[in-house]
Amino acid sequence: MLSQTAEYALRTVLYIAGHADEGPARAEEMAAALRIPRNYLSKTLHRLAHGGVLTSTRGRGGGFLLARSPADIPLLAVVGLFDQIEPRRQCLLGRPVCSDQHACEAHVQWKDVSERVARFFSETSVADLMGPGPTRGKVPGGARAPVPKGATVARRR
Amino acid sequence: MLSQTAEYALRTVLYIAGHADEGPARAEEMAAALRIPRNYLSKTLHRLAHGGVLTSTRGRGGGFLLARSPADIPLLAVVGLFDQIEPRRQCLLGRPVCSDQHACEAHVQWKDVSERVARFFSETSVADLMGPGPTRGKVPGGARAPVPKGATVARRR
DNA sequence: TTAGAATATCATATCCTCATGATGATGTCA
DNA sequence: TGACATCATCATGAGGATATGATATTCTAA
């Protein structure tokens, strides 16, 4: 259902969300904790930062933080950076025309199913997936380590 | 949603079903009609024959036929030979344990969605996808070209 | 028995995903 | 200023999905 990379990304975002009260999460630390190859994760993290999901900070005390509160990050924002979730083809068969025209009952049902999948990813937020950890649900921004200065927010080149 | 190969397989099966009254469908003919690479399709067809979806006949007058009536072939029988449809992971994150234990509402929803997808593929048949073609729905076995003798039904090696 | 029709299979080639190792760039802190 | 921590990036490669071309095999029909 999800590519390896997208799953990595989701697990990583969950990790960062769950450890937000400890300040920025380091790539090294997450790679070890989540059993994800170090350098591969690095690239995935970078893509998440570019995509506006994370902010990154270099140097001592640096690492990755969520760019928004977990409740404001739909799963699609994470997964969509790696996999194509939106149903590009309404028709199961990739036929260009077909679809709902000749009233094919099966197509209607397929449309329903595929829309449900898409809706799940766009309506479920990161907060919805967070287990009973130290920080749960929204992060009120109170008792957290301060964000270092040069934080990168969806930098553009 | 579906791999290229699985989509080819589905379109091919649909083609064979729609042309059942013309006798066995030849690989060459289908490759041209469906714009699928000839030899690649050949392998896909072979896999479908091994999987019990098609029967193949060599030599003059040979080609491919459905092994059963279209209504008796769920889409899963076709697609499942190429893609993994059944939700191997109940947990979206690939966590081994997690899942429904700590009552995570999102997981319940995900389970619902993924089961719907699986159900669609197992409950929808090839006949359900057939358009208004020459042969529609079940093939009553009446006015058809006779099946040549040495037809291969899910040959095993 | 032989020619031809058609599938079956083999040997490659290309591209993408996933992965690894090494190095560069940039920030903090003493 | 210099040491160090940390992210950013490059070069490379294994493996699978997709694809192509050539050849082998098997069957029918005359």
Architecture overview:
The structure is a homodimer of 157-residue chains. The first copy, chain A, has six helices and two strands. With 157 residues, chain A is mainly α. The longest helix of chain A is centred in the C-terminal third of the chain and has 19 residues, at 105-123. In chain A, 41% of the residues lie in helices and 5% in strands. Mean pLDDT of chain A is 81; it is low at 135-150 and 152-157. Chain A is elongated and about 60 Å long. The A-B interface holds A 1-2, 7, 10-11, 14, 87, 89, 92-94, 98, 102, 104-107, 109-110, 113-114, 116-117, 120, 124, 128-129, 131-132 and B 1-2, 7, 10-11, 14, 87, 89, 92-94, 98, 102, 104-107, 109-110, 113-114, 116-117, 120, 124, 128-129, 131-132. Chain A binds a DNA duplex (30 and 30 nucleotides) through residues 3-5, 26-28, 37-40, 42-43, 45-46, 49, 56-64, 148-150, 152.
Can you give me a brief rundown of this structure?
Two copies of one chain form a homodimer. Helices cover 41% and strands 5% of the residues of chain A.
Oligomeric form: homodimer
Mean pLDDT of chain A, to the nearest integer, reads 81
Structural class of chain A: mainly alpha
The largest sheet of chain A, given as strand count, sense and whether it forms a barrel, is:
2 strands, antiparallel
What is the approximate shape of chain A? elongated
Number of helix segments of chain A? 6
User: What percent of the residues of chain A sit in helical stretches (DSSP H or I)?
Assistant: 40-55%
Number of strands of chain A: 2
Largest interface: A-B, 29 and 29 residues
Q: Give the N-terminus to C-terminus distance of chain A in angstroms.
A: 32 Å
Low-confidence stretches of chain A: 135-150, 152-157
**Widest sheet of chain A: strand order?**
1-2
Q: Bin the strand percentage of chain A.
A: 5-15%
Radius of gyration of chain A: 18 Å
The SSE order of chain A reads HHHEEHHH
